[in-house]
Amino acid sequence: MASRFCMLFGWVLVILVFYNDAESQSGSSFAANYLYKPPISDGASKPNAADFANRVAEAKVFCKEKKLQTQTAIFMDLGLHSGKYRCFVVRLSDGAIRQKGLVTHGSGKAGLLQGERKYSNEEGSLLSALGKYKIGKSYNGQFGLAYKLYGLEATNSNAFSRYIVLHGHECVTDTESEEMLCQSWGCPTVSPAFLQSLKKVIENTPGSLLLWIYDSSLK
Questions:
Q1: Distance in angstroms (rounded) separating the CA atoms of residues 218 and 79
Q2: Average pLDDT over residues 15-31
């Protein structure tokens, strides 16, 4: 066993010497192409400031047109890293983020791989649907407290019939992580504790709130 280990160690040294020699001859491109493998990214860790500001401005106009609450809205950027905060309670007057938490992405029928993004408005797709929603009344569903959602755009018009609702689940944590978050069957799902925080916002704010689910990585 010891002799095999020594032999294996010797081959590792030979390979390393070869790589170092090749890098010195070929320049940094050799190292970039063969030695360094960047980690797979699951998305940016925080919103782009310019994109976020533009969306706040758009939301203000939309809320006024649709007679929704014009002071507060909830933004969910599914283009961000799934383990990072990407659900934001936003004050529309100045774009200030009042609260933030984690939120799931719809898994689809096979589950999404790291860095993968898919969306659908179709019945049975089990995927998230992008677009602006009106948050409706609360009810006690399969996972406890939940809020009905009404899709306001062509991309999410089937939300109510698909039973896409805002609810909590214990698989969603309250702290950020580099790991991927659990996936839902299309519902925007947050942690039970964060849902209680959202409850105070939703139920203590006069008028119906806007929930905007979008993907900032899409151009």
A1: 8
A2: 34
Q: Which pairs count as long-range contacts for 172-180, CB under 8 Å and 24+ apart, including other chains?
A: 172/102, 172/103, 172/104, 173/102, 174/101, 174/102, 176/83, 176/84, 176/85, 176/102, 177/83, 178/81, 178/83, 179/83, 180/42, 180/82, 180/83, 180/114
- Burial class (CB within 10 angstroms; exposed 0-12, middle 13-18, buried 19+) of 31: middle
The pTM of this model reads 0.82
Place of tokens 């702290």: 175
How far does CA 54 lie from the centroid of its chain?
Answer: 19
If one counts every other C-beta atom within 10 angstroms of the C-beta of residue 8, the result is 10
pLDDT at 57: 98
Q: What does the pLDDT look like over 150-195, one tens digit per residue?
A: 999 999 999 999 999 999 999 999 999 999 999 999 999 999 999 9
What is the CB-side half-sphere exposure of residue 114 using CA atoms within 13 A? 9
